[in-house]
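Key result, reporting period 2: structure in, sequence out.
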């Protein structure tokens, strides 16, 4: 967390609330260093879906960054901005679905709505990639991945926004709400050296 000397107490209070959140047990969320230079105050979290003993996840991962600027930048339309990222590997057949990018974005919007996470000025990209290994990587076969990068300006309570982001990370990894401890099928490990 960064905090500049002129910060109001709003950021410290928000950071305390977000750090106190508990997420489903198969999504491990931890605080990470926040990017510098984006805002006077920032707090960041990483999420990994069902990580192994080394902390690596073959199912999916995500990042959540809360930015605070009491000067209320025009582009934000307020003092807060959230920047989020979620990524998950897919089976190649799913990766070729022409509606996949639209569905991933709709999952974010639906997760925010289901948590009552009011917001405005949402923007982002949903990217699907297909890959094929050659030479020394030919044994990996075909692969696919979905990645969502988004930002929005939250209004009201901030905790529902982090909860919606964690729900999105789970959804992309094949864990719909209420599926805690249910097997995930089709996860691929893509190793590129």
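The corresponding designed sequence is given below.
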């Amino acid at each position: 967390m960064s905090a500049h000397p002129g910060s109001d107490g709003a950021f410290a209070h928000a950071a305390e609330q977000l750090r106190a959140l508990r997420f489903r047990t198969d999504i491990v969320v931890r605080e990470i260093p926040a990017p510098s230079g984006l805002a006077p105050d920032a707090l960041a979290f990483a999420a990994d879906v069902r990580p192994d003993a080394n902390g690596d996840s073959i199912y999916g991962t995500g990042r959540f960054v809360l930015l605070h600027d009491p000067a209320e930048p025009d582009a934000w339309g307020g003092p807060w901005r959230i920047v989020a990222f979620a990524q998950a590997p897919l089976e190649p057949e799913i990766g070729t679905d022409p509606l996949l990018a639209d569905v991933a974005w709709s999952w974010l919007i639906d997760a925010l709505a289901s948590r009552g996470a009011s917001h405005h000025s949402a923007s982002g990209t949903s990217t699907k990639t297909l890959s094929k290994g050659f030479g020394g990587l030919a044994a990996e076969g075909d692969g696919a991945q979905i990645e969502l990068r988004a930002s929005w300006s939250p209004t009201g309570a901030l905790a529902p926004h982090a909860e919606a982001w964690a729900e999105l990370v789970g959804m992309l990894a094949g864990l719909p709400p209420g599926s805690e401890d249910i097997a995930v099928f089709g996860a691929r490990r893509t190793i590129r050296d």
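The helical segments are 9-19, 92-95, 100-114, 159-172. Residues 9-172 form one domain. This case is discussed further under Risks and Mitigation.
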